[in-house]
Amino acid sequence: MDSALPLTHKLAVLVFIKNEQGDQLLIKRKKAPNFGNWSPIGGKVETSCGESPFECAVRETREETGLETRTADFHLFAMISEKAYEGESHWLLFLFRCRKPIPGLPPDIDEGSFGFFPRSQVDSLAIPDTDRQALWEIWDRHRDGFVALRVDCSDRDRLKIDVEETLSSSGRR
User: Fold this and answer.
1) Distance (Å, rounded) from C-alpha 88 to C-alpha 14?
2) Which one of 40, 63, 102, 172 has the minimum C-beta count within 10 Å?
3) How far is CA 84 from the centre of its chain?
4) How far is residue 170's CA from residue 54's CA, in Å, rounded to a whole number?
5) pLDDT at 137 > cutoff 50
6) Residue 64, class by beta-carbon neighbours within 10 Å (0-12 exposed, 13-18 middle, 19+ buried)?
7) SS3 state of residue 108
8) DSSP 8-state symbol, 6
C-alpha cells in the first residue's frame, strides 16, 4: 500500500505579452517554481474568491507589469493539465495571448526581472525543461486557435503529451 500523500492540484495562468516590435515579454523568476528561469508572466487563480482564469490573467498582468487590461484583451489558446509537475503537484494551466501590446519594459518586482526577446531567441535562454519540451511549441502552433493537452511530467527527461482537443483559428477541429 502506498503511504505517500496525494499530490495537490493547483490552477494557474500564463500570459504571453508582446511589445509593439513583436518581442515576447518574459520574467526571470526569483521564486519557485521555475527559479532562475525565464518564463511568461502568470500566477495562481484565486479560487477562494471564485476568480475565473480570465480574471486572473487581468489581475496578474496588472500586478506583474502594470499594464491595464480587460478580459476582452485576452485569447485563451491552451489548457494544459500537468500531472506530477516536479513530483510535487498537479497543475491545470490556462495559457493566454494578450492582444494588447505592452508599451515598455516593466520595472523589476519581487517575482523577478523582465526582458524582451524575439521568439527566435527564447530557445537559447534558461527556460524550464517543460517549457523547452512543450510550451513554446504550443505557442507557435496554437496561439491563434485552441488546444487542450494532458501532460504526464512523471519522467522529467521525457514528457508524455496527449492532445485532448485542438481547434484552428477558424474554429475547426
Assistant:
1) 19
2) 172
3) 17
4) 21
5) yes
6) buried
7) coil
8) P
In angstroms, the Cα distances linking 160 to 41, 45, 66 are 25, 25, 36
Q: Count CB neighbours of 137 within 10 A.
A: 12
User: Which pLDDT does position 131 carry in this prediction?
Assistant: 87
Q: Domains of the chain (ranges plus CATH)?
A: 8-20+40-108+129-167 (3.90.79.10)
pLDDT tens-digit series, residues 90-124: 889 999 999 999 999 999 999 999 999 999 999 99
Rounded Cα distance between 121 and 115, Å, is 12
**Cell digits of residue 21:** 516590435
Query: pLDDT band at 160, cuts 50/70/90?
Result: confident
Are residues 80 and 151 in contact, defined by beta-carbon separation less than 8 angstroms? yes
